Amino acid sequence: MSGIVFFKSKDLRMIRDFYQDKLGLKLWLDQGKCMIFEHRGMLIGFCQSEVAESQGTITFLYDSIALVDAAYLRYQDLATSPAKLNPAFNIYHFWAEDPEGRTLEFQYFLKAGEQNPGQDVIEVLNEDPAKPKLLLTRLLPEKAMNELKDFFEVHANIAHRNLSKTELIAHIADKAALLCLLGDDIDESLMNAAAKLKVISNYAVGYNNIDLQAAKARGIAVCNTPGVLTESTADLAWALIMATARRIPESESFTREGNFVGWEPLLFLGQDVHQRTLGILGMGRIGQAVARRARGFDMKVIYHSPHDKELDFAAERVDFETLLLESDILSLHLPLKPETKHLIGEKELKTMKRSAILINTARGAIVDERVLIRALQEGWIFAAGFDVYEHEPEIPQALKELPNAVLLPHIGSASLETREQMGSLAARNAIAIVQGTEAPARVV
Predict the structure, then answer these.
(1) N or C: which end of the chain has fewer CB within 10 A?
(2) Which parts of the chain register pLDDT below 50?
(3) Do the Cβ atoms of 226 and 441 come closer than 8 Å?
């Protein structure tokens, strides 16, 4: 048995814009005067009426505290309460409203014995009042941890989740250094609470999670970890290229589920990679490393960049439209800036070949995720492979359900050697700034 919860609505166009475009729900059925949306098996219907019906609560379930926090950051303009623990029901949630006044709840049920967000998850790993203090937002590989502890008194988040903004602010006041991740929002409000902070060392190449102007105004150095993850990220981009082109995840699941009964001429037909055209958008370190690997597949390489690049392999610089029109595989390697947000949208996806593949190991918001879902559903392009997402760690259910989307959990740099090198560089950056010497990789 299955069922649908229905509500009356005065404005179905507004409802569609909100539930499909804003919340990312899948449009399950559209019958003109009646629309039904799906969220993880739950069906929510809206029918045209003279009067809107707003009684009751629509509850969206999540799988972790971190996902509720991510949803809160994304939908903060809709929220009517902060994200918090309700100990009476052992749930972590926040309330919001839709455009017609319906109550929405975004909720996670804590598991038995699970550490709740009201508990302090910061632990001093090596108490030593003589050392400067560092706040570490997630534990790092052992080598980097030892480097940090040699110089700092390390106050570390020991939970398997990101710290909330409230937790960050509560623990930053007496810290000389902050070593953080891309998922940590390091804004002006946090810096205002950090009177002793000298350095923000980001455990990533990117730093769009940090307000650089606010840091510069306060004399706080910002550092990152470029170079050390180039080759590993390029390897992963190629893993996504092969997986999407040859439909590897679909085929693997099909086989594991016992559906393979013998060779078939039309079984899981994909796209060739060899002798095709690889397009690179952003020919920096990682873009070049990805392009360099194309030589083994006898591919033509084209790229779009503001300026010609001195390269040790054959590649043609083209304008943006030509890149979209001619690429069989388009791989993104741009930083996220105001001018690159949603650079790949409806116009761009419709310009690409219907047989084309889009790969993103850069930043999720470079692609308009809402439009990408439609593009994959309607066959504007063949497939997409993503390691990053627009509202990470939240991934729209509609995107998860697409067989022509290969989705990875941001593991571009996830080899032991690379993560150790990133950790070591992040540690050396923080140590250098606190010592008053030049950091290996300083942004501001």
Answers:
(1) N
(2) none
(3) yes
